[in-house]
Specification:
Blueprint: E1 11-12, E2 41-43, E3 61-63, E4 65-70, H1 77-87, E5 90-95, H2 99-107, E6 115-116, H3 120-128, E7 163-176, H4 187-193, E8 201-203, H5 207-217, H6 227-240, E9 244-247, H7 252-257, E10 262-266, H8 269-279, E11 286-289, E12 297-304, H9 311-321, H10 324-334, H11 349-352, H12 361-364, H13 375-390
Parallel strand pairs: 1-5, 4-5, 4-6, 8-9, 8-10
Antiparallel strand pairs: 2-3, 6-12, 7-10, 7-11, 7-12
Helix pairs in contact: 1-9, 5-6, 6-13
Length: 391
Amino acid sequence: MAEKFSPQPFVIRKRVTRRGFFYIAGVSSAAAFLAACGGQTTTAPTIVPVGSATAMPAAAPIEKEMFLYNWSGYVNPENVAAFSKEFGVQVTEDNYGSNEDLLAKVEAGGSGYDIVAPTGYMVKIMGEKDLLLPLDLSKIPNAKYMSPPFDKGRPHDPDNKWSLTKDWGTFGIMWNSEKVTDNFVSWDDLWRLAPKYSGKIIAVDSSPEVFGAALKYLGYSYNATDPKEIDAALKKLMELKPHLRSFDSTYIAKMASEEAWITLGWNGDAFAANAQRKDAGKAESIQYVIPSEGSEIWEDDWCILKSAPHPNAAHAFINFVLEPKRQAAETNFTYYASGQDEAKKYINPDILNNPAIYPPGEVIAKLEAATDLPKAAQEYRDEAWTKLKSA
């Protein structure tokens, strides 16, 4: 029998915002932590997740704490509280600002974390570096609800060895329609209008997305490896840079406060900015578009670190949030698309029908996912990124 447990509040150690919650106003149709002590364990009760006949295996010893290393504002606190109550697990969260920050922290020996949520290409990198624990899918029966193309055959982890899809989204342009009198439909609009809004534009501090934007603008692949194409993208970005306020992945507050008016960023952060504006009594005027030339489609995944001190709690949590109604609760909270068709039955119709969250096929056809590039190409792009930022 499980030991009686009074769950503590969901603890968040640090706020490093990359992805927040999502809201779109007038979207265009173009559209170690310190090393944790090995937690005490308790035998979990047999729990049937909401709306599912599949119970978590009763024999699995569930540790009494779990550490989540995640993007900021990227999990529904109601799901975390429900998991904590049902399994008697205290969940503590720490945040990172980029996939590269995540990798650096883990490689540097940052221990104590259990679950991470890297983007697809980083899953492959971390898996090949032996940083991820192979998933025991017998402990995650709700994985059966994943739908194509998010069930099996994903390029970065075709057999679900290390990961299961958390959610997915896009990268594009957001702007404050109260300050910007123009609409954005394409990457060309950004470059053309940059002089007009000089000093009010932020680019996310992440090389794959920024170079990917320039490459798509020029008609190249988001994952281009040809030095000539990378040079052309660098030249184009050098034209944009004089008009940038900064490279900054913590741009949400700046968009909300009108310190910045335009940002190259991830779709969900538009809502976070609008939520802050609403709290301040301002109009929810942040809009978002997937540029017509195409952009990035990203997938973030639930993974467990090989060094995880609480692997059973981690497996239990992933299974818990993959139950369709809880998966829908995630989407209804974060406004990011789910990889489950079953969850769509419970997702707010306004979200499900929003083309910036679930883009139509013709838009998706122009999107590319970031991939793990060959070493020489990655080094060349890293050098180009350094040149851009230091210019």
